[in-house]
Amino acid sequence: MTETIAPRSKQLKLPPLNLGKHTIDVPVVLAPMAGVTNKAFRRLCREYGGGLYVTEMVTARSLVERRPESLRIIEHDSDEAIRSIQIYGVDAVNVGKAVRMVVEEDRADHIDLNFGCPVPKVTKLGGGSALPWKTDLFTAIVETAVKEASRNDIPLTIKMRKGIDEDHLTFIESAKIARDAGVAGIALHGRTLEQRYSGHADWNAIADLREAIPDVPILGNGDIFSAEDAISMVEQTGVDGIVVGRGCQGRPWLFGDLQNAFEGSEERFRPGVSEVADMIYRHAELLVETFGDEAKGLREIRKHVAWYFHGYPVGGQLRSKMATVPDLASFREYLAELDHSIGYPGAPVEGPRGRAGSPKKPHLPQGWLDSRVLGDAERLGLAGAELDVSGG
Ligand SMILES: Cc1cc2nc3c(=O)[nH]c(=O)nc-3n(C[C@H](O)[C@H](O)[C@H](O)COP(=O)(O)O)c2cc1C
């Protein structure tokens, strides 16, 4: 069901987003989310609205080693117009090799590099969002990646956080390095590593970045949970586009709202229980297709149950059954038990969702903050920061 909201005093029509040779009509990017933004979820989101839909991240090393799971992650449906992938790596050689492989084998049309991961086991070795602090390493990775991508005119973008903490901000400096290296766009998640997913994203920092880097497309990320948030972000920061993560978890229709908003329309999707049930069942079917395995597909849908029904009056017992659903037939039965007459609940469905938590003192290698240049021992330690990683 759609509804027309009260007209805003100001209408916003944002021009298409240009990332290198690509023009993205609706300047909206689905944030890469490990374990979420696979082919199945991207398809659902795409069916609602335009934009750029990025894969989950893969590590450079796993790509170079051609691990089957990594090759699966960077696969796209044949109708994904711009095949966008995200790579995470901690050294220029491996990142360069991974980008070269993707480009030579024509596996993507756009590559994003992830410099935002806050996971302690990664940052304590100097990887993820700890990495941009070492400007020599950051420069080498970005320059190499851009060079390799440019062999086939593939635009390369970066995604990062503000810095390690408020006393160790890196984003303006990193953005200048990236601009000079020739990136096609820069996305900033307005939080520090220390904040992880807590508190609020700092949109002022995004505005500062916009001002400091007027000549490269800037994408604002953090705390966009509705089309109205997206409009506010653009109005407050002047960004060229927005990146949406947790806000679309369990709400692929948000991309419809975002497209409407950016086209100046006041139409918004307001699904009732019945529509949500249809959508999550379809999501499950697509996951089964994506993984080629019913049990695996159903294991994957379980975490989405809480997101889809967040704010809908659904009993605890039914929720727990759905959260352990073994197969499609059972899922269909459980969904039939829902009260399909319940409409859109309004406010309870809206607002923040997904990961939050509290700030944590960053885990960094001993003495990491003492120098902006990577030491030999630190270089050795970094190798482990690419093993077994998932998420940003
Ligand atoms: C479950 C989950 C997985 C994520 N995985 C990645 C990832 O693989 N790469 C990345 O750059 N960021 C990752 N992120 C961070 C998001 O892309 C985004 O920057 C962050 O959630 C802030 O945006 P939001 O407020 O719209 O959620 C992840 C976030 C979540 C919640």
Automatic annotation (TrEMBL):
Domain DUS-like FMN-binding residue range list: 30-332
Binding site for FMN: 32-34, 86, 159, 189, 245-246
Alphabetized Pfam families for the sequence: Dus
Cofactor(s) named in the record: FMN
GO-annotated molecular function: flavin adenine dinucleotide binding; tRNA binding; tRNA dihydrouridine synthase activity
CDD domains: DUS_like_FMN (cd02801)
Gene3D superfamilies listed in its UniProt record: Aldolase class I (3.20.20.70), Putative flavin oxidoreducatase, domain 2 (1.10.1200.80)
Region annotation Disordered: where it falls in the sequence: 346-368
EC number: 1.3.1.-
Domain of life: Bacteria
Positions annotated as active site in the UniProt record: 117 (proton donor)
Catalytic activity: a 5,6-dihydrouridine in tRNA + NADP(+) = a uridine in tRNA + NADPH + H(+); a 5,6-dihydrouridine in tRNA + NAD(+) = a uridine in tRNA + NADH + H(+)
UniProt key word Flavoprotein: yes
Keywords: Flavoprotein, FMN, NADP, Nucleotide-binding, Oxidoreductase, RNA-binding, tRNA processing, tRNA-binding
Keyword Flavoprotein listed: yes
Job of this protein: Catalyzes the synthesis of 5,6-dihydrouridine (D), a modified base found in the D-loop of most tRNAs, via the reduction of the C5-C6 double bond in target uridines.
PANTHER family: TRNA-DIHYDROURIDINE(47) SYNTHASE [NAD(P)(+)]-LIKE
Family, similarity comment: Belongs to the dus family.
Name of this chain's protein: tRNA-dihydrouridine synthase
Organism, scientific name: Rothia aerolata
